[in-house]
Amino acid sequence: MNAKQFDKVMTAILYTIAGIIVTILAALILYILLRGLPHVSWHFLTGKSSSYEAGGGIGIQLYNSLFLLIITLIISIPLSMGAGIYLAEYAKKGRLTDFIRTCIEILSSLPSVVVGLFGYLIFVVQFQYGFSIISGALALTVFNLPQMTRTVEDSLRNVHHTQREAGLALGLSRWETVLHVVIPEAIPSIVTGVVLASGRIFGEAAALIYTAGQSAPALDWGNWNPLSVTSPISIFRQSETLAVHIWKVNSEGTIPDATMVSAGSAAILLIFILIFNLSARYLGKKLHARLTSAK
Questions:
Q1: Which of 85, 161, 197, 270 has the lowest tally of Cβ within 10 angstroms?
Q2: Where is the ABC transmembrane type-1 domain (predicted)?
Q3: What is the pLDDT of residues 1-24, one digit of tens each?
Q4: Cα–Cα distance measured from residue 22 to residue 18, given in angstroms and rounded to the nearest whole number
Q5: Which of 134-138, 158-162, 214-218 has the highest mean pLDDT?
């Protein structure tokens, strides 16, 4: 077999493997959607969940997932931006930098259950936040921060060095160059990474079982006191998310229509994750095209 024939055979094998993987993924997505979407209705999306009676919804769990996502991003984006800028623009090669990168690699490889147990011991017990949104958000920050930091760092490093040299040549300081030249150039990649991380946060369950709680108390939509445990904007109340609700329904099975609720919830969760992933690609291309045209 000559080189050209070998190349064709290996190419065919690679295409076959890729096709099998895509087929399995597409079949899994279609199975979840076809199994769950028939049970989805407006009442299901907005109604309250039930522990023992059939016909419950996921309204509170869906709101909790979105609210927890917002709180987590508010905490993690500034931290990841600061860490990424330091590692990409200011950190010098040495033992300290190597130690920081090693810590990031270790944190990024931790199972979410371990992060959940860590969050339970530190935020729930030690800091006495209890099972709450803030405990879940802090645990998810620990879980998601390494990935977001590496995304920011890689995005900044991919900016060509001539951009920095141009800023410095115009008399800008190093920080002004980073702030007004480098970061705007890296925004498309950073936004893409943040949106992808949002999908990961939205679908997380294991870390939240031990931190955010497994119950979804009724919310008083007329109460906007952030310190009240019935307020929709309170970060100190328990907040069973959609992913945790799916786990709980499947593990306990105390409601007669547990299978239908689980299938419908899984379909909605999958749709949101697909939206996050598709939005990341769209926003990245849109921002990149806008920046390119502005030049």
A1: 161
A2: 62-280
A3: 677 888 888 899 999 999 999 999
A4: 6
A5: 134-138
CATH number of 40-292: 1.10.3720.10
- What's the confidence (pLDDT) of residue 77? 92
pTM over 0.85: yes
pLDDT at residue 193, as a whole number:
86
> Alpha-carbon distance 99 to 115, whole Å?
20
